[in-house]
Amino acid sequence: MGVVEEAHNVKVIGSGKTTVVLGHGFGTDQSVWKHLVPYLIDDYRVVLYDNMGSGPTNPNYFDFERYATLEGYAYDLLAILEELQIDSCIYLGHSLSSMTGVVASIFRPDLFSKLILLSASPRFINSDEYYGGFEKEDIDQLCQAMESNYKSWIDGFAPLVIGGDMDSVAVQEFSRTLFNMRPDISLSVFRTIFMFDLRHFLSRVTVPCHIIQSSKDLAVPVAVSEYIHRNLGGKSIVEVISTEGHLPQLSAPEVTVPVLLRHISHNITIDHQLSQ
After folding, report:
1. Is 246 one of the catalytic residues?
2. Does the predicted model carry a pTM greater than 0.90?
3. Domains along the chain with CATH numbers
4. From which domain of life does this come (predicted)?
5. Which residue in 8, 24, 94, 246 is the catalytic one?
6. Most exposed: 48, 61, 190, 214, by fewest CB within 10 Å?
């Protein structure tokens, strides 16, 4: 195993000519895809990895300066593809990693046959002509809460993001992976995500994009998925699914997994409808 593979806990499973790479979002790790992976391994070569800073990675490898922008994560993704000698893949990214895929595809469009963007947002903070869902004051308050009592912050944040109560299995799972992150790293990643503005990148994306969004997501309003669709430089399609929460692959796999499988297996046709 190479240095990059080991650092990111890369796992390659399944069989098939087509490679599907799965990237997880903030506060989770590769285990967030546990409901999807069993349906992929018979037909695809599946690559799983952990973002640097997530619980299963070595916190000593986390470079606060490198990961202050999404380019750091994009370069990690490209390094993983290079070390595995992958020259083309379908990339499915959730939340933070959906935008990581966007940036990486601008650097190396040849490596991606399509991007599947789940719960994606290029900017979370509202501005005069854009509705991202949050005011800057909201983010500042969340950061202050993280700094003062990380465990207490998780107890409040996880149910809001998942869209359930603390008794929910999905909320408990998200709480577990959040708690596994070192608090200072978690705060740094949180700030990076909620302060970035990647809207200017969208027009440079030429790889086909499948945008999948929960109908009710505290972190990403449905209007954001439409904004991405309108501003991408290449072909794209939006599907809003009848799920609640920012991690539908974890909280509503029975609805989300079939949708993800359909977007993995079908490409966008000229009229922007899914081909059959």
Report:
1. yes
2. yes
3. 3-123+198-265 (3.40.50.1820)
4. Eukaryota
5. 246
6. 61
